[in-house]
Amino acid sequence: MSKIRDEVLSANSKYTKDFGDKAKLPMPPGRRFAILTCMDARLDPARYAGLAEGDAHVIRNAGGRASDDAIRSLVISYKLLGTREWFVIHHTDCGMQTFTDEIMCNLLRSSLKGASIDASGWHDAGGGGGSTEGDYIKWLTIGKQEPSVLEDVQRIRNHPLVPSDIPIHGYIYDVHSGKLVEVPEACAAGRAKN
Ligand SMILES: [Zn+2]
């Protein structure tokens, strides 16, 4: 039996005891906005942005990048579920800054096992059984946060399925203070146009 599985199910059991009237929540987000942010375990969008259940959509992936799938979710969020304002929030000390597509592809070619990082970079566990399939994925790594936030806001803004009247805000979450820091160029690029 997995210890983590037991812990999750035990926590869930406690959660359902205080579930209250959340069963009555409507599906569309009550505060009509969405956040695209990184999956980093240190980020808790519900807390850093003051969300309760039913308030907003939170779309998460590695880096909080505007991948095709993130845009798919945002378009559904607007078109079918009524969000009218979006945030792109990357963060300091993101894991996506620690590698490049080339590094990731080489690690995966070496083996599928977990890699480790030290001062000289990433090292694969080895042992064979790797794959070249990683070569066909855009890993959407990050160099510096400001340009990555700007790039993603622009990508969403210019997407043919995104309406021009939805504002898109670009921010960086500081993992040392919890503060959201505006990326002015990104907010300017994401300004709503009528
Ligand atoms: Zn991250």
UniProtKB/TrEMBL annotation:
Entry's Gene Ontology molecular function annotations: carbonate dehydratase activity; zinc ion binding
Source organism, top-level taxon: Bacteria
Binding-site residues, Zn(2+): C38, D40, H91, C94
Cofactor: Zn(2+)
Keywords: Metal-binding, Zinc
Cofactor note: Binds 1 zinc ion per subunit.
InterPro entries reported for this sequence: Carbonic_anhydrase, Carbonic_anhydrase_sf
Family, as annotated: Belongs to the beta-class carbonic anhydrase family.
Protein name: Carbonic anhydrase
